[in-house]
Write the structure tokens for this entry.
Amino acid sequence: MQSEEEQCKKRWKGLRDSYKRIKRSQLLASGSGAPSHSWIMYKHPEAQSVMKVMLKVKAPVSFPHHQRTQRHHHTKTILHCLAQGHEKKLSKSLTIFWNLLLKALKILVLRFVLKKKNWTLHFQTLVSKIKESGIPKNVANEIEAKVSALVFYEIENHLNNMDKRTNSLRARCLTGMADIHEYVNLVLDAVQDVEFKLIRRKQDLEDDSLVFHPMMAHQIFGESESIFGYKGLCVRILYTAGPLHIYIGIEYDSRVDELSGGDIKADVVVRPIAEKLPDGCFFVNMDEFLKTLDKADKFQPFGEKITEQSVTDEDGQEHFFELYHCDYKVPAFLKFFSRLQTFILRFVDAASYIDVDDPQWSFFVCYEKYKNDNGDYQSATTGYTTSYEYYAYPQHIRPRISQLLGLPPFQKLGIGTKFIETVYKHYLPIINVLDMAVEDPSGDFQRLRNYIDARLCMGLKSFGSDVIKKGFNKEMVHEARETYKLNPRQCRRVYEILRLYYTNIYDKNDYHAYRLDVKRRLNAIYYKHINDIKKMEKAKVDKEWLRARLPTPSQRMEQLHEEYEKVENAYKQIVEKLCD
């Protein structure tokens, strides 16, 4: 049995030429109407055959249900009239039948215009049916004229609509291009348009010298760190200096909503900020916020004071700092710390909030002690650090410094150095502390830690200038761990820094020996892979996958040189600081 597509290809080939015959067809159509009785008698067998086929063929889904029922009924009527020779009844049934067929054709044409799927098959089917029916030429021409007129009308109508949509789209694009410059100016830098202040008194609200901006905003406003849709935007995030109660306010001259007539919406600003804050810990009403400022003089530092330090800044102003170790069991402190750690997302890359309910956390907070306008002492929060106490077999703990932040107004005053020294001072007397580490340190933090550890180890016997050039040894690891709780990896790093400190880089042999020592450590992993390959060769194990991952000897030499230069440059910065 031939497929529907093959049958359709054999039929309906005349429509492509119908447009040329429209005028002639319309003239012929006016000369004759319904088929004559003689045609019925003459073409009776063929006509009956065509209508029997139509009766068997399932009506297309383009026919509505009631039209499919009518088509089936009138097909039976036409067959009956052909058999009995009823000319009048046959003429009426044929008229109804062709009207139904034209309605179906209209739907098919619309499908062709909108979907363009298998449209030629439908036309071929109709043409074939007309040809096989054996009707007179003038009747076929009349049908063809009606079909052609309908087809070209629908196509022309669709093309006109397409032109209208295209022109409308073009006009909108031109309008958009004209406005794009204005809209581009509404894409704002969230780092520059968000302002922070630490408020100690009401007069600070108007003091622009206290303003500081976040270092990053991607965790709040997305990777682009931008805010869209405002002119003259200013986002103000205010903290009371001591208890850190928060106010969020937004000011702007105009929004894109008004400029675009509501077609374009400005970004929501307060909600993404509020979502990163603990529930209910911020104000949007200034009067309510100022009420908390009136009570700020009653704020007292949490925890137990460990140490204190006096620092003079570049302007000659003296600051007095106190560091406290805080207890997680105090509910008031946990609420305070939830507000304090909101700074971390703006000033430490890839940082996240910690679970304050975990008892393994240890908190260290720094406050500045200052005199208010009445001459009374108050405390302002200046930064914090945290450590997590990991278990170490069999009965030890291994504290790991997790976060360290000095608020921007108090940076470059030695608070970071004091924090690390304070953490060391806190854990050194604890017998079951094995050693200490840092969790995923940033480059700046690692440099600070290296400087502090190198400065501490300079006083140890095993790191003396007469011993250190003999090479790294276990005595260094033991003494650094027992004295300052340094882990072996950090101990090796300190050794390399101090050896560079004692090395005469202008002495060829001395400098060459140092370079070789550092490069042996950098190359250790590469040689381990080489040894693994040799072991696999002896065991007759496939080693090609491992060899493919290794660079060639010449490539490795280049990589090693780059790695060493990077390490030495970082060490030189610390050595220069040790020499000051």
Q: What stands out?
A: The longest strand covers residues 377-392. Residues 8-20, 29-67, 109-119 have pLDDT under 50 and may be disordered.
